[in-house]
Amino acid sequence: MASSDVGKVSSASLGAKIDEIGVRHSEENGKMASSLKFGFYYITCHLLSIVTYLVDHSFSCWLAYQYHVQEQETYFALTVTFIVLPALISTGISMRWYIQDVDDPTLPKAPLWRWVLRVFFLLAQFAPILRYLDSLYYGIRSIIASRKNEKEKQQYLYRRMVDEDSDASLLRLFHCFLHAAPQAILHLMILIRMAKQRQPLQAYQGWAVVCALISIAWALTSYHRSVRFARDDKEKLSWKGSTIQFCWHLMGTASRVLALAMLAAMYPAWMGTVCLCHWCVMAAWLALGHHQTAVCSSRCEELMFSGVLGLAYILAFIAPRDGPTRYTYLAYYLVCFMENTGALVVWCVGSSSVQNPSLYYGTVTMQVLTFLLGILFMLLYYRYFHPSGTSTTIRKSITITEVSDRLSKAGASGRAFSHTL
């Protein structure tokens, strides 16, 4: 073959490769553009987060008022404590983040009216709600910018929306474990104790427990969704995956809450001891394992973070960093299974099936059934709905950050955990 012919073949091959690369690049840009759209799925998730938060909070406040009217001061004091303390913690964390944002030169300065709105919502103890509203605000503006074909502005607003969503999800997560979880255990314990008596508050207490469980399950689902949406190198969680994950967390949380409530209804001190030991073991495991995340900038903050996350582990597991979680989940659910089984044994031995057989057998059946369903939904999620692998549009992080220097605000808000859920 002549050298000219070889040159033609080489040129043709090179041209074909260039065309192929161009097609791939166009496809990646198309995927990137579609993934940056703030659509119905985002809006629905934000609205569900706001509604579940408000409903859960409303039931707790209403029951606190009713306990006070009926002179049940112990229940009133516990309910108010689990309302005010988590709200103050969420407010303090949110205000600290706002102050950090002020010192960030890559972010625009907030106007006076926005600071007034922030102070109002924080004083009203609705810190996560304000974050969700800010996220909706940036998301709607990104839609407007997209329709005007302002691509750079749309990408910037989308990133701001994701940042606020990540902050709101993390705040909501801590608030649920400090507020919704204790409220669910408390009201369910009261229901079990007063099962023989007919009281007008039983219906409200039942609905309060259901709303608290839904709030916890959705907070976990929303957090996992927001982390994946904030990570440019991770595949996004679809609405089907979110639904299955919600069922997984709902069943797992219900099983755990029911086991603790059964134990608390008979031996409150035992329940407190079990939770305290579980907390200390989990916090020590996190602290000694040096599970650093973007949340922690020092060893002191890491120890505090381990304590807070260890408290959350009483009800659910949250991976503190990226990496395989199969064996960690196995160990965690094995511990929960042993603790739940111990609570069932204490319940079966300490209570009587003669006095109230429906309550006796019903609680046992529900506790076992919800635990098994939680495991089943978890297996279904990881088998069929988990967005495995890294994103095929990994260049998106480079493309977005080149739009503006302000987009260097830690892609995931710098405050969300990094894991593979």
UniProtKB/TrEMBL annotation:
Subcellular location(s) per record: Cell membrane; Membrane
UniProt keyword Transmembrane, yes or no: yes
Transmembrane segments: 38-55, 75-95, 115-133, 170-192, 204-223, 269-288, 300-318, 330-350, 359-382
One Pfam family matching this protein: XK-related
Keywords, ordered alphabetically: Cell membrane, Membrane, Transmembrane, Transmembrane helix
GO cellular component: a single term: plasma membrane
Membrane topology recorded in Swiss-Prot or TrEMBL: Multi-pass membrane protein
Gene Ontology terms: biological process: apoptotic process involved in development; engulfment of apoptotic cell; phosphatidylserine exposure on apoptotic cell surface
UniProt keyword Cytoplasm present: no
Homology family: Belongs to the XK family.
Descriptive protein name: XK-related protein
Originating organism: Frankliniella occidentalis
